[in-house]
């Protein structure tokens, strides 16, 4: 099976014998379980942050959590901000870039028009994203990933040093140039009006499904398109880093002692910088009540620490997975990572129903702590469901649909079926 950007990547195996074969997924034996596990854990962090910031309350017009929260709420909010905010999504987008490189490499080795096939795949992902964003939930990330991935196609033939240089350039634009170029900033940012948040609470909490559709379409068309001017370079940075990780063969060489030392250094330094800086901000703001510093250098430091922490998480997990006892414990996340596309969309379907008026209407009525508990319970259930599903089927249902659209024919679904 070919790897997909939201699904599990493949190990580097010889495909010379398949030259000239028609485009088709490669054998399951080439999957990299480590990447499935890391992806599954990253998706868990993404779910917890989505529950905190987008499902539980309206996304646009938020002013941040109040300072007078109960103790448990304050603890949950701070844990999320220090350990997860920005970091889980960054790690997930790095893995997306790795998946792009793997998919292209496999398809290119088969001589099947790799760039066209991957463009087609990303095009269908964009359609999934549009349907997801307009019909289900306006926290969609799929369309942005598809758009950024199409830009990333320009770099798929590049060597590692070019990928890293381009990543630095994109990061520099995202962190320094973009926000400080007034013309770009004024064009890209559309701030919600003062009454938008309360109106969103009313519509999502009590409106009909048609009213919610209209309001969500207004929000997406009003606030999202222009933000891509700033967001695409940031996401592209992460994807290019993911491509470079695959191109450098890091994932194939984790048994080498020299690489293990490098991974230890990345894990320790990345997490120390990322978590340490967020702890500093928490102490500064909540204990000493100092206003948050603003300006380009604060943004550079903030975004740099998020990226370094995400890389630290990834390196730390790869190190843990070298140990048999940790591999057994963390292996429960592998099915979740294999079905990341299905699990992500299922989360949107379930939690939009839980929080919107056509379901339980809980938007704006649930605190961070109960929402986090919902996420833990639901992700546990998704873990059981994913493991059971994959005993009988080769892909999750949405992965199957996406693959079938990509290759232009229905893919075999049941285990043991011909590839």
From TrEMBL:
Protein name (record): DUF418 domain-containing protein
Coiled coil (residue ranges): none
Ion transport keyword on record: no
Keyword Iron: no
InterPro entries xref list: Bact_Transport_Assoc, DUF418
Key words of the record: Membrane, Transmembrane, Transmembrane helix
Phylogenetic placement of the source organism: Bacteria, Pseudomonadati, Myxococcota, Myxococcia, Myxococcales
Domain DUF418, first and last residues per copy: 255-408
Pfam family, one: DUF418
Transmembrane segments annotated in the record for this chain: 82-104, 124-147, 226-246, 258-280, 300-321, 341-359, 371-390
């Amino acid at each position: 099976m070919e790897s997909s950007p939201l699904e599990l990547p493949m190990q580097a195996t010889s495909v010379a014998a398949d030259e000239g074969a028609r485009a088709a997924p490669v054998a399951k034996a080439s999957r990299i379980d480590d990447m499935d596990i890391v992806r599954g854990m990253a998706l868990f962090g993404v779910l917890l942050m989505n529950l905190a910031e987008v499902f539980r309350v309206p996304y646009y017009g938020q002013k941040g959590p109040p300072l007078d929260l109960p103790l448990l709420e304050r603890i949950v909010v701070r844990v999320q901000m220090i350990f997860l905010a920005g970091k889980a999504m960054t790690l997930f987008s790095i893995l997306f870039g790795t998946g792009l490189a793997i998919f292209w490499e496999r398809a290119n080795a088969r001589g099947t028009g790799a760039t066209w096939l991957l463009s087609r795949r990303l095009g269908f992902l964009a359609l999934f994203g549009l349907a997801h964003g307009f019909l289900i939930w306006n926290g969609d990330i799929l369309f942005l990933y598809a758009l950024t991935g199409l830009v990333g196609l320009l770099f798929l033939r590049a060597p590692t040093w070019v990928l890293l240089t381009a990543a630095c350039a994109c990061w520099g634009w995202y962190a320094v140039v973009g926000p400080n170029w007034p013309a770009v900033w004024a064009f890209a940012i559309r701030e919600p009006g003062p009454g938008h948040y309360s109106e969103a609470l009313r519509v999502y909490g009590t409106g009909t499904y048609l009213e919610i559709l209209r309001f969500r379409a207004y929000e997406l068309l009003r606030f999202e398109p222009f933000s891509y001017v700033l967001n695409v370079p940031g996401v592209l940075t992460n994807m290019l880093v993911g491509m470079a990780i695959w191109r450098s063969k890091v994932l194939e060489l984790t048994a080498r002692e020299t690489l293990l030392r490098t991974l230890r250094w990345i894990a320790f330094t990345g997490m120390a910088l990322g978590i340490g800086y967020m702890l500093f901000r928490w102490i500064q703001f909540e204990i000493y009540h100092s206003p948050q510093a603003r300006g380009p250098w604060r943004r550079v430091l903030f975004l740099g620490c998020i990226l370094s922490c995400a890389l630290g998480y990834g390196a730390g997990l790869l190190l843990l997975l070298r140990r048999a006892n940790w591999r057994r414990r963390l292996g429960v996340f592998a099915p979740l990572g294999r079905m990341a596309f299905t699990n992500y969309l299922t989360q949107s379907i379930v939690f939009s129903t839980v929080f919107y008026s056509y379901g339980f209407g809980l938007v704006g009525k649930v605190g961070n702590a109960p929402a986090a508990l919902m996420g833990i319970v639901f992700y546990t259930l998704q873990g059981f469901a994913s493991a059971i599903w994959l005993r009988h089927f080769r892909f999750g249902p949405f992965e199957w649909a996406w693959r079938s659209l990509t290759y232009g024919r229905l893919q075999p679904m049941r285990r043991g079926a011909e590839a």
